[in-house]
Structures are given as structure tokens and as C-alpha cells.
Amino acid sequence: MGARRDLYPAIDCRRSDHLEVDGHRIYFEESGNPNGKPVIFLHGGPGGGAMPVYRRLFDASAYRIVLFDQRGCGRSTPHASLEHNTTWHLIADMERIREALDIGRWQVFGGSWGSTLALAYAETHPGRVIDLVLRGIFLLRRKELDWYYGGGAAAVFPDEWEKFCAPIPEGERGDMIAAYYRRLTGDDAKARLEAARSWSMWEGATVSLLPNPGRVSGFGAERFADAFARIECHYFINGGFLENDGWLLENIGGIRHIPAVIVQGRYDMATPVTSAWDLHRAWPEADLRLVDDAGHAFSEPGILHELLEATDRFRNR
Questions:
Q1: Which structural domain range is residue 157 located in?
Q2: Does position 182 have pLDDT exceeding 80, yes or no?
Q3: Which has the closest alpha carbon to 47: 294, 227, 273, 203?
Q4: Which of 246, 247, 259, 305 could hold 242 in an S-S bridge, CB 3.0 to 4.6 Å?
Q5: Is residue 10 situated within a structural domain?
Q6: pTM for the structure as a whole
Q7: Among residues 240, 261, 285, which one ends one of the domains?
Q8: What number is the average pLDDT over the span 278-284?
Q9: Is 296 a known active-site residue?
Q10: Active-site hit among 268, 275, 280, 305
Q11: What percent of the chain has pLDDT over 70?
């Protein structure tokens, strides 16, 4: 194995703005080359928010890089709001941003929940997508949620699972998503914060092959955890607001002509490799890159390398 790639140098945001829609104020920004190939980056969660480090996945001399904070998180307001917050609202927001920036077509880059949103957007607006870079595939099927919130990942992380279960009485643990949802949307502010931090820190502790205490601490920060946990749980209890459990795979035929790279860690506990494999079986034209020494996080060396290779491969298309 040759030397693995590292992030491009840090760059500043060139301009930023907000969309005002449905009572939400949605933050978006541009960086890189204003005349470069447009790309929109879709962050995870849902509820995770965009970070400056994501700009560094792209060659700033070649790409016009668009980031935005999805409804209710990051620099978008109202914070942690669940009103008018569905997959279809986010897809409409992407179209509004594209139109506001006078972009005809763009690359769509999404990891984790961002891969879900990227697929849903591409299947809804295939003519707007030049190519796709997808990481940590999440198809938002019931079996994926059951794996992560129903005891599957607990077999690998029993210590962290015990912490995750702690806020929930034993009698409610048969449906952890529903039990958490009651607390995350309830009137008890203390219970809401406890649940938000526990939900978020479970994810922070399990998304990489090797432990990262700094990530766990960051996921447990009150403001981040409140939006992350509430919005994730809201989407998950509603099946991502998709028409049915297999909707993304059922509609893959409409985008099989779009060039795509799928990057997946073999030891991903949050979005297991079976989902990436199922996607690749339905979409054999996509280039699947399995990383044998990685979990879920984009920053793991093997995953980061493949993402940079993908954005470089597509930069001149």
C-alpha cells in the first residue's frame, strides 16, 4: 500500500448567506474557485452541521465548494427545530441553494446520512447531478436502525451500549428509538438534555475503528447534542420520510448512468458494510472502494484517502 493522502490545506469561506423558508433560516456558504466545478457537500446526522474541515476534501483550485447546514442544526435556525424538517424539505433547500447560486449541475458528496440525502436528491433530480461521491452508506432501512439501536452494534461495544441504555428504564428498552424520542421531544428539559447527550455520545464512541475521546466529548457538547439527537431521532422514527423501507434501492435505476464512487469502511458499526454492498449490487456501475482498516468516520486514514482520490478523479469532468 502506498502513502495515503491527507486533506487539502485549510481555506476560508469566500461568501455566505441564508435562505429564509418555512420559518427556517438556512446557512450556506461558498469557497474555492468561483469558476470551478460546483460541488455540494451534505453533512451527516441528520443534525450534524457542516464544518470548515469539509472544504478540505476538495482541490480548491478546481472546485466551487458549497456547504450548508441542514434545517435545525449548525448555523441554521431555529436550533434543533423539527417543524417542516423532512428529507423532502432538505431536497427542496438544495434546489433553492442551487438556483440562488446560478448553478446548473453539480457534484453531490455525502457521507452517512449525507449519503441517504445524496441518493434521495439524485433520484429526485437526476438531471442536476454530474457525479456522486458517497461514504458510509445509509439506506435508512428498518434493519439498519435495528442493528445500531436494537443491539447489533452492542455486541461489539457492550460498554458503550450500557451507557446508551442508562437513561431508559428496562421496560422501555424494546424500542430504544421510541423511548428516546419521548424524552427528546418532551417538556422535561433535564431529561431532554440527558437523553440528547447519551444518544449523541453513543454515536461518537462507535463511529471509528479506534477510540477517539475528543470526538466523544464533542458529540456530548450540549448545543451539538440537542440538535443532533432530536433531529436524528425525528428522522429515524419516521423512516426518513421515505415512501417505503426500500425506496432508495427501488429507484436506483434512474441514476445508474451517473458516475459514482462509494467509499465504505469494512468495520463500520454505524452503517454496516452490507448496505454499501446492497447498493453496489443494485448499481454495479458505481465504483465501490472497501477500506479494510476503517470504521465509519470520514477522517479515518483509509477512508480519507479514497475520498480525496474520488474528488480528484472527478474534478475535471
A1: 143-240
A2: yes
A3: 227
A4: 247
A5: no
A6: 0.98
A7: 240
A8: 98
A9: yes
A10: 268
A11: 100
